[in-house]
Amino acid sequence: MSILKKITILLAEDHAIVRQGLRTLLESEGHFEVVGQAQTGREAIVLAAKLRPDVILMDIAMPELNGLEATRQILAAHPAAKVLMLSAHSDDEYVERATAVGAVGFLEKQTSAEILAQAIQEVAKGKTFISPIIAKRIADGKKRAFDRDGLVKSNAARLTSRETEVLQLVAEGRANKQVADTLGISIKTVEKHRQHLMDKLNIHETAGLTRYAIAQGIIESSVKVTII
Question: Residue 36 belongs to what H/E stretch?
Answer without folding.
Answer: strand 32-38
